[in-house]
Design goal:
Structural class: alpha/beta
Strand order of the largest sheet: 3-2-1-4-5-10-9-6-7-8
Order of helices and strands: EHEHEHHEHEEHHEHEHEHHE
Low-confidence stretches: 121-125, 251-258
Shape: globular
Strand content: 15-25%
Helix content: 40-55%
Number of helices: 11
Number of strands: 10
Mean pLDDT: 83
Largest sheet: 10 strands, mixed
Distance between the termini: 18 Å
Length: 276
């Protein structure tokens, strides 16, 4: 099924250009409708030395928020008006000011969400991790460095036999079918992920029946981290898209917010398609 409704999360001027560089060609390729979403935080009242709300601070904050929202709206409209695509702009004001979280209602009605990778240590980036976890829709994460790629020739499907991995594999089917080749990549197969004991074999066969060009590769971590093994395989294959089932262990996500998903959201070098 093609991606007909695509939501672009525009958090700030730094990531907006890269997100649109990805979302607009995808919407054009799939004949889709693009929705731009941006949220600003509601100004928080501070008490002055006399004990009264600092109205001047509130006014300045509101004006800065409005100016930033208008800049992003102008950027979005300028890019869209020359594209020939149907589009919408949604400007929100919420307590969090996080475009990813504030636009959750819009996101849940989409086929695909495009968001920028979180900057390490940055407070201005959208909470993409929580977006992936709560949206119920696949999220395409654009890396914060390097060229923006929208025609994915080589796809690496990280497979561990979980429900989340299966969801990601079939959610990403439009990209997998369009790719020249897709590799099902298994790290440290446990034997209980695939019913017949052949790691990655069943999902590869299923995707091949759809017409995908599929291969399977199995690796041992040998004491290293799974994310490092996946990153090395991305480099070896020259893959330009990683498909990943996000947060296979929800309780670990809640406690540590770490692992492979976190590594992809913070420091992945290629576009990542995450679903759960």
């Amino acid at each position: 099924m093609p991606f007909k409704t695509i939501v672009a999360i525009l958090q700030n001027e730094q990531d907006a250009g890269r997100v649109l560089d990805c979302a607009i060609p995808l919407a054009a390729g799939f004949g889709g409708h693009l929705v731009g979403v941006h949220a600003e935080a509601m100004p928080v009242p501070y008490t002055s030395a006399t004990g009264f709300p600092d109205t001047e601070f509130l006014q300045v904050s509101a004006e800065m928020n409005e100016e930033r929202a208008e800049k992003l709206q102008a950027l979005f409209l300028k890019r869209m008006e020359g594209s020939g695509l149907p589009f919408e702009w949604r400007s929100l004001e919420t307590f969090s000011g996080d475009s990813a979280l504030s636009g959750i209602a819009t996101v849940r009605a989409a086929d695909l969400v495009v968001a920028a990778q979180s900057e390490a240590g940055g407070d201005a980036s959208a909470d993409v991790g929580t977006l992936v976890y709560d949206a119920g829709r696949p999220v395409l994460v654009v890396p914060h460095a390097g060229p923006v790629v929208t025609s994915y020739k080589t796809v690496l499907l990280a497979w561990n036999g979980t429900r989340e991995a299966a969801r990601a594999a079939f959610d990403a089917l439009p990209f997998i079918l369009a790719a020249e080749k897709t590799e099902v990549f298994v790290v440290d197969p446990s034997g209980d992920g695939d019913g017949d004991g052949t790691a990655g074999g069943e999902i590869a066969a299923s995707l091949a029946r759809h017409g995908a060009n599929i291969s399977v590769s199995v690796r041992k971590a040998d004491g290293g981290s799974i994310e490092d093994v996946i990153q090395a395989r991305l480099t070896d294959t020259g893959a330009d898209l990683l498909v990943l089932g996000a947060y296979s262990h929800s309780w670990l996500r809640r406690l540590l917010f770490g692992g492979v998903t976190q590594s992809v959201l913070r420091s992945g070098t290629v576009a990542a398609f995450l679903s759960r």
